[in-house]
Amino acid sequence: MYKLKNITLLSILIVPLFISSCTKTSDTSTDTSGNWIKRSDFEGITRSEGVSFVIGDKAYVGTGYDGTNRLGDLWQYDPVQNFWLQKADLPGAARSSAVAFTAGGNGYVGTGYDGVNRLNDIWQYNPTTNSWIKKNDFTGGARYDAVAFSVLDKGYIATGYDGNYLKDFWEYNPATDNWLQQVSLGGSKRSAAVAFVYNNKAYVCTGTNNGTSTGVNDLWVFDPSATPIWTEKRKISNVSTDSYDDAYAVIRSNAVAFVMNGKGYVTCGENGAVLNDTWEYDFANDVWAKKTAYEGVARTGALGFCVSDRGFVLTGRSSSTPFDDIREFFPLQAYNAND
What phi, psi does 276 have (nearest 5°)? Predict the structure, then answer.
C-alpha cells in the first residue's frame, strides 16, 4: 500500500468586520507565467515517495516506492551536463516516505516506511567517498511523511505520522551526532507537508491532519536567531477580507517545494484529486501567485530540488502509475507548449 510522504508557517491581526471593510483591495497578480522544460529522464526505476538532497552543484535522488517494492538506490544528477550517475545504495532498509537534508557537506537520509515498519534510523552519505555511515537514530521516534531541512549546517526533522499525526521538531548537530528537541511549530499537526529554506529561515506548510482530504492551511516560518523561533504567516487559503487570497488554492498534501530566484514554489500533490498547479511565494510580501502548471502529468509523491538556482520536479505518481520524467522550471519565461 502507498504511504503518503515528502520537505517545513502567520500572525493575523483579528479586527472587527464592518460593512465598509467588505470591499477587498487588490495587491497580487493572477498571472500564470512560467515555462517547464523536459530534461533527461531519471535513470533509476520509476517511483514515488523518494527523497532528494543537494550537495554543491549536484542533486541526489533515492529511495521510494515503485508500486511493488520499496527502494534503496541513490542517483546523482548533474544539471549542467543533464546527466544521471548511479551511486552507492543506502545500506539500511529500502524505504519510502523518508526524509533527507544536507549538513556539513554530507547528505542525510532517515525515517520512512519499509512496507511493514515505520523507521527511525539515520544514514550519512559522503559524496567524496561515495559511502554511507550509520548515525545515531532519530530521537523523535519512528515515523514517515515527515519534513526535513537544514539551516546554518544543522539538520531538522519535524511533523509526520507515527500512528498519530505529529508537529514535534528536532535539531540534529552533525558535529556531535546528537538530536535535541526544540519548540514545536504552532498550528496544526500534519503529515506529507513541505518545507523550503530562504535566507536561513525555513518555511513549513501544506500537509494533511487527521486523514482530511482538504489539508491544513497554515504557514509557519522557523528562524533559529529569533525568539520565538516559530512565527505564523498568512493563511494559504481564502480567509481574509482582502483580495490577495481570492484565487488561493495552495492547500494540498504530498506536494513538492523548492526555492529559486528569491521565491518559493509549491507544485503538484493532492487535494481530493491529483494536482499539477504551481504557486509562487513572495517572501517579502507574504503572498502567493499562480504560475504555469507543471507541464507533465499531474502527480503526487514527486520530488523537487534546486541546484545553482535552477528548480526541478521529477518522479511521483498519478493514481498507481509511477513516473521517471523530470522538468526544469523557468518562472520568468513565457509559457511554450512546444518545448
Answer: -140, 5
